[in-house]
Amino acid sequence: MLKLDTPELNSDAGNMALSVSGDERAELEQYRHWIKNLADVCESASQGNLEARLLHVDVDGDLERAIRSINGLLDYTDAFVRESKASLTASANGKFFRKVLLKGMRGSFKQASEVINSAGDKMKHQADEIEQAGVRRLEMADAFEKEVQGISTIVSAAATQLHATVQSLKEVTERASQETTDAVESVNQTSQNVNVVAESTVQLNHSIQEIDSRVKESTEVVQQAVNESEHAKEFMSGLVEATGGIGSAAKMIADIAKQTNLLALNATIEAARAGEAGAGFAVVASEVKVLAQDTAKATDHITDQIRHIQGIVDDAVSNISTVSSTIRKVDEISDSISTSISEQSQVISTIHQNVENAAEKTAQTTDSIQNVSATADETSHSTRDLLCAANDISQQSESLNSAVNQFLATIRSN
Question: What is the pTM of this model?
Fold first, then answer.
């Protein structure tokens, strides 16, 4: 810094003052004043105060150019510092749109401003990439969480379901083991019952054969009764015809009696006309008349008896027809029974065969159930091991879920 107030300069100035005029002396004082102001402003700027300026410049020449150059330098420096600070502060806060204004910038200030703007663009690009990477990382974390939690949930649910299923299987196998034991006893009892049924079917078959023999005998008797009823029906039909003939003869006798009665009446009338000569004839005619009347009464009685006999015969014919029809129905029923008994005999034979087969199958079933019982015992032991494995899977699923949550928390915190 130029010092104008040194003893030597002051001494020289004093000596010079003796030889300069008043105008020159005033100009010299003016220079000393602005040089001091220049020094103060430059010192203030060197200490970081870029707002100090040299104001009210009243000199010209090189000193004026120096003063204005210093003011311009301070303006450029202050503008550059303010713009750089604003741009860098915004960039530090993630706001990369704030640029250093290049308008009015020159030389190194403009180059430095362009470098800062370019650095801001690069920082924005890097920040965008970091942000996108963070977004992708979070998306990957979300997807990983979703996938792993889904798998963990499925595994946990599967383990829970497996545990429940194994527990149910354990209970089922235990029940199956008990039930197979009961089944063996039941099958043994069934086997005994089947043997009893087999013996019963043999006895039943013998009984049915005996019944069939009896039914055949009754069928023969019924057939004989049918034949006898047909003979009785034919006999009654002949009796009806005979009584019909007797009735006709009785009617003829009645007609003759009526005619005789009329002749006796006429003879009596003629004897009365003959007087004493016809008295004997009148007695005969009177006897004939009495005889004709008795004959008419007898024929009426015979006719009544014939009608009564015909009624009885008709009832007998009707009853015989009914009996004959009933016997035929009995014969048909006997045939049906005989047919049914034959069929039942075949069915019983089939049942007997099936019962024998059932006895064999029952024995096989007993063996199979005993094998099932042994298998159920083995399954029960296996389900215990599987139950332990299901518990281990459930614990591992919980551990996996906890580790994934810690991993995701670490990723998201960064």
Answer: 0.34
